[in-house]
């Protein structure tokens, strides 16, 4: 394994029973960290990974490992304390040389926004983007947390998962402190994306070229994608799983 001197990193990637020819792409162990340690990175290894490929931290805007305040194992703390910053961010990136163009990719993770504060009189901002990158180094589709100042105004945005006017996009609300479980299954051969939240399928979209090639899963601050005018955020991520199923 490349960069084996780096301690096992922090996110739990588990095997999906029932799929033939499945490979775990990332399997990280947060228990090898001390609480407060910053998340580390390493080069991509086709045989399996113990770290993300890129982590962007900047001062108080960083991703660290903490003990889960709700009990259980350690989780990732996504903390942005500088409203105008584009940090933090993390990439799970196979790179263009290992672009996935056939088979299935299965992404699963849990996310919880503890708190956020909007600035400059904003009514609603994109807080966190959870995006998917193809061969053009662009997030062509993403799932985002949008935070609002009015009570009950927070919602999940499924940007890019469907062409405008071709598919009804669900409007899922969320509250501070509420844990959401996400699952995105990409069938690269069928060019199909299936999205589930909290175990319920919210939609399936087929025959879109952007679902035919993926190399990276990126979690980052919403300001970096142009959907934010500045905010502070505290959020937690856990049980991130990325698996590949051979065709």
Can you tell me about this structure?
With 247 residues, the chain is an all-beta fold. The protein has a single domain (22-245), classed as Jelly Rolls, CATH 2.60.120.200. Helices cover 0% and strands 43% of the residues. It is built from no helices and 15 strands. It has strands at residues 22-26, 54-56, 62-67, 74-80, 89-93, 104-118, 124-133, 139-148, 155-157, 172-173, 180-187, 192-197, 200-205, 216-221, 231-245. Strand 3 (62-67) and strand 4 form a beta hairpin. It is globular and about 45 Å long. The two termini are 25 Å apart.
The largest β sheet comes out as: 8 strands, antiparallel
Let me know the number of strands. Answer: 15
Q: Please trace the helix and strand order, writing H or E for each element.
A: EEEEEEEEEEEEEEE
CATH class: Mainly Beta
**Rg of Cα set:** 17 Å
Q: Helical element count?
A: 0
Which outline best applies? Answer: globular
Distance from first to last alpha carbon? 25 Å
Give the tags.
247 residues, mainly beta, Jelly Rolls, eight-stranded antiparallel sheet, seven-stranded antiparallel sheet, 15 strands, globular
Topology:
Blueprint: E1 22-26, E2 54-56, E3 62-67, E4 74-80, E5 89-93, E6 104-118, E7 124-133, E8 139-148, E9 155-157, E10 172-173, E11 180-187, E12 192-197, E13 200-205, E14 216-221, E15 231-245
Antiparallel strand pairs: 1-15, 2-5, 3-4, 4-15, 5-14, 6-11, 6-15, 7-8, 7-14, 8-9, 9-10, 11-12, 12-13
């Amino acid at each position: 394994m490349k960069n084996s001197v780096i301690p096992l990193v922090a996110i739990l990637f588990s095997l999906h029973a029932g799929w033939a020819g499945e490979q775990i792409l990332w399997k990280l162990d947060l228990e090898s960290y001390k609480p407060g340690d910053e998340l580390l990175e390493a080069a991509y290894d086709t045989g399996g990974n113990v770290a993300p490929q890129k982590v962007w931290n900047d001062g108080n805007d960083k991703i660290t490992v903490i003990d889960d305040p709700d009990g259980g194992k350690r989780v990732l703390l996504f903390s942005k304390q500088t409203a105008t910053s584009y940090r933090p961010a993390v990439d799970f990136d196979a790179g263009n040389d290992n672009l996935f163009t056939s088979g299935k990719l299965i992404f699963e993770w849990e996310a919880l926004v503890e708190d956020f504060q909007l600035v400059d009189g904003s009514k609603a901002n994109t807080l966190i983007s959870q995006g998917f990158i193809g061969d053009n180094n662009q997030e062509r589709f993403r799932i985002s947390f949008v935070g609002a100042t009015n009570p009950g105004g927070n919602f999940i945005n499924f940007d890019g998962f469907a062409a405008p006017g071709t598919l009804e996009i669900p409007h899922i609300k969320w509250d501070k402190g509420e844990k959401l479980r996400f699952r995105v299954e990409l069938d690269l051969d069928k060019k199909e994306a299936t999205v589930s939240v909290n175990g319920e399928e919210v939609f399936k979209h087929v025959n879109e070229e952007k679902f035919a090639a993926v190399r990276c899963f990126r979690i980052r601050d919403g300001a970096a994608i142009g959907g934010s005018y500045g905010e502070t955020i505290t959020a937690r991520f856990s049980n991130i799983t990325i698996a590949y199923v051979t065709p």
